[in-house]
Amino acid sequence: MTQPADADARRAVQPVICYPTETLPVPELALYAQAREGAEKVDEVLVPARDAACFRARAGQFFRISSLDGPQVGDLNLWNANDLNERFYSGKSRALHGTHLTTGERMWCSFPYLRPMATITEDTLGWYGMDQYGGSVHDVIGTRCDPYTGNLLSGSQYHHCCHSNLTRALADELRVSLAEAEPHVHDVLNVFMCTGFTRDTGQYFMKASPVRPGDYLEFFAEIDVLGALSACPGGDCSAEHSSDTAACYPLLVEVFAPKAGSLDGWQSPPVNGYDRSHGR
Ligand SMILES: [Zn+2]
User: Fold this and answer.
1) How many A from CA of 222 to the centre of ligand 1?
2) Centre of ligand 1 from the C-alpha of residue 145, in Å
3) Per-residue three-class SS string for the chain
4) Is 241 a residue whose pLDDT tops 80?
5) pTM for the predicted model, two decimal places
């Protein structure tokens, strides 16, 4: 292919940020931190290795995902507990915050709601930053490991991918069939996963997660949420996923409720204000 004469000049154009976030509503992190101080644990769910489990947190509560026995990646789905049509929107969260999420950033939900579902309030891997390969932790660029891509690439029938784990967990939680549950499963927040895009080919890569037992990612639930977390069969995702060869560990989800009155003045965010007339 021949290049135009001004190819280098066209490439040299400076990028601009698509969505400057100066006008994005700012989470009240100081208020959340204050409320968290007196909060008490009200629930916990152990997510078995190579499997998934559901949990619920009410608006104003906190939920924490912890690494327990060894480095383990988790695939997180989140819904409005009262309406499954409102669910985590990985792509828009990426457009707003970048490829990986950390403290002060949010899990945004699907159209037409587009409001924060949960805000990250603590990230013990926040020190990791961006490594020399362009890798970072807790991405919103991957999707979730799934049996369809495995079948496409290698003809496999593997059933403990995060997609299938999440489907089974949601079906059990809602007491519906797998066929009814599956369409609700969506692109995840890859908790503890270390990923990026290669600089030369732009390919999605993963590398051994820096997570260690005791590390955690904690969220403030902005609305009533139903969550499903899969302990990925890739374990720390250092080598492969969609297999039973990686060392895998459980993950712990804990839910904390602040003391009554400690969130005075705070309100669960309303749904998006666009009037939905779409020009007609
Ligand atoms: Zn997975």
Assistant:
1) 26
2) 4
3) CCCCCCHHHHHCCCCCCCCCCCCCCCCCHHHHHHHHHCCEEEEEEEECCCCEEEEEECCCCEEEEEECCCCCCEEEEEEECCEEEEEECHHHHHHHHCCECCCCCEEEECCCCCCEEEEEEEECCHHHCCCCCCCEEEECCCCCCCHHHHHHHHCCCCCCCHHHHHHHHHHHHHCCCHHHHHHHCCCCEEEEEEEEECCCCCCEEEECCCCCCCCEEEEEECCCEEEEEEECCCCCCCCCCCCCCCCCCCEEEEEEECCCCCCCCCCCCCCCCCCCCCCC
4) no
5) 0.95
